[in-house]
Amino acid sequence: TVSFVPQAMEREISAAFLSGGPEDILSTAFKLIVTREDICTLKPQGWLNDSIINFYMTLVVERSKKKGYPAVYAFNTFFYSKLNSASHRGVKKWTKGVDIFEHDVILVPVHLTVHWSLLVVDLRKKTIKYFDSLGQKGNHVCKTVLNYLKEESKEKRNIELTDSEWTLHSMGREEIPQQNNGSDCGVFVCKFADFISRDKPIIFTREHMPYFRKKMVWEIIHQQLL
């Protein structure tokens, strides 16, 4: 079935939701902290917060260091809004000591007022794709990030990127699964990242969301992706 979770795992998940105070720390790694209050956003119909999405993206990046995976870089959830308001200058220091162009895939979680979506740069194919589980277009997001890449490339590597070599595309409703409620967007973003970071086709559906929520609780507590 879509949502089979072993009993031992179910017990751990219930304990994470129920036993203790909201400020209890349930996971800490990569200089990030996840509290019980954060974990509770993974309850059914919960709205995922920055802590959960940032922790999950970091787990995706960690896994990508293993052999056989594309090299992945992920920006945190505050990057895009800062870039949008302050352009390249405002986020220049975010990549201090990092050459993002040495990676295969760059993940940019995007927070637009009350909705999460994901922008994916594939440096191998020179594509920038926007994944939105409500089917909204993100052409402006793609352009903003392409402009960022151009500035970053010029500054860090002294290489000019050519617009015409890049393909920008907002994924349509018929291309990727869509949510049917107001709360699952964050889970979609995490799972888009999970599949894309393994070069796997996105074959899950919205029916998988309750199962994914449970699985993510376990993965974050154990700091490893199943």
Can you characterise this structure?
This protein is α/β, with parallel strands linked by helices and 226 residues long. Helix content is 39%, strand content 16%. The strands form 2 sheets. The chain has a 5-stranded mixed sheet, with helices on both faces. The chain is globular, with a radius of gyration of 18 Å. Pfam families: Peptidase_C48.
CATH superfamily: Adenoviral Proteinase, Chain A
Percentage beta strand: 15-25%
| Beta strand count | 7
Helix content: 25-40%
Round the Cα radius of gyration to an integer and report it.
Answer: 18 Å
Listing every helix as H and every strand as E from the N terminus to the C terminus, the arrangement reads: HEEHHEHEEEHEHH
How is this fold's topology laid out?
Elements (H helix, E strand, L loop, with lengths): L6 H12 L6 E5 L2 E4 H4 L10 H14 L8 E3 L4 H13 L13 E8 L2 E8 L4 E5 L7 H19 L9 E4 L14 H12 L12 H14 L4
Parallel strand pairs: 3-4, 6-7
Antiparallel strand pairs: 1-2, 4-5, 5-6
Features:
Papain-like_cys_pep_sf; single chain; 226 residues; alpha/beta; two-stranded antiparallel sheet; Adenoviral Proteinase, Chain; globular; 5-stranded mixed β-sheet; protease
Brief summary:
The chain contains 7 helices and 7 strands. The chain is of the alpha/beta class. Keywords: Hydrolase, Protease, Thiol protease.
